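Shipment paperwork, digital attachment
Item: protein structure file
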Amino acid sequence: MFPLNDNFDATSLDSLEPVFNELLSRDVKSVSDLEVFFSDISDMAEHVSEAGARLYIGMTCDTENELKQTNFLNFVENIRPRMSEVSNKLDLKILNLDFLEQLSDRYSLILRSMRNSIEIFREENIPLSVECTKLSTEYQKIIGAMTVNFEGMEYTLPQMRRFLESNDRETRRLAWASVRERRMKDSSRISEILDELIDKRNKIAQNAGFNNYVEYAFRSMERFDYSPSDCREFHKSVEIHCMPLIHQINQDRLSGFGFDKLMPWDVNEKSGDSPDVQGRPALAPFQDVSELVSLTSEVFHGMSDELGEMFDRLVDGEVLDLDSRKGKAPGGYQYNLEKTGLPFIFMNASGQQGDVETMIHEAGHAFHSMYCSHLGLIQERNYPIEFAEVASMSMELLTQPHWDVFYSDEEDVLRARKMHLESVIGLLAWICRVDAFQHWMYENPNHSHKERSEYWLELRSRFGPRTDWTGFEEDEALFWQTQGHLFGAPFYYIEYGIAQLGALQIWAKHIDDPQTALSDYKKAMMLGNTRNLPDLFEAADIKLSFDEEHIGRLVNHVSSALEASG
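Attachment content:
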């Protein structure tokens, strides 16, 4: 039976049940039997993972296709729950063996993960998890269907970003107001979806014996190396060191624009970006996605032959869906196809500098997957999210010296680099705001809509730009609805902040010694999930720390680079 055939249908329970039964009934008598057992379980899991990946990709690429929606939800409702049950039984079977101490260190993190899964597994949580996936899918469908009629044309929300970078303030205002008006039409249902998600997630936590979903999320996400209190320390450190720099950047913009105040269409609430204060046209690094791909390939070849060839493998493998279109889910992601051996990249490009950064970010994820593809077990390749984002965010910074391939004018290159560094600081503040919001919501699961809005606005006073939302107070109180992670990936956001701290350290090293930085990057990424999070940071010769002094040094480094860029 093993290894399973390449054409094995992991979307069918009829195909899977004989596999499940064979594994569950197999007699494992020795260490060598157990190692084969691990390998066969991994083989099965790889097929199931890729089947789910392809269905998710199909659904997000075309949210209006009812058949793709149905196929994905059938997988969520039937395959994943059964897989969860079987995985729990297999974990119990392995952990009850009396010769586990004879296994090599290779399996230590895998066994730790198994023990954790068993401790928090509750059969009654399976249908609740399915319901959560259905709700997050509904959110994606609502957002994916949003379009705006602007200046006589229909645009998706990602395509509207080009107007928000316009130097004409009235164009920005009209574009921003049009987007907000469209979002507000569905705001009531989106608030209800979050209500339902909070309720179901709280039940999941309580069923598993936790006081709240915060505690459950940290365990289920295997956050063994940092705690909620570390996150709060991170929030405070960012508030102390990032916010003064953000306010100074915006004060300089205010003076440069000659405005009496900054409005939300003048500064991006999430990234901290703004139009050019000198009135120069918005950066236009490429005309279409084919040019984006060819120029990105040139960037990576300029860094190293290895990175260039890895990116070209993605292009040749036809695993890129990059353009924005009606009915396509928002955002961007990389999804590894475990059996095919290639990562899939999804994004919504509309011709902006931010698209370049997203392309490079997702390529960094893909490189991580490709670097650790030599590891034999799927559990060894399932690297911690915090380090996955080091792979992607580092690549954004490391490619900066090669961004001249996108621009013929050196002034535009400098603008792009400066915008990116400013957004690094702005994003750290937004990350802390979203993370603190999630902690509060799930620590207070019975809160009202009014209380939710009030706390969101309180966080805005700590971590937001000083823009004036007069006339748009309801939009301001509901702006959290734009953050998809709250719906589909709860608590997956602080990872970006932790990873940014690692990426900034690799970037600082790269400025002085590019080859050593790339070598350390590769060495760490090749480890996959065979080391814990602090050891992965150490392998890259960087430090995992949340304290004020450490974060202050990194912010000062960015500040110095911004001053040097003019």
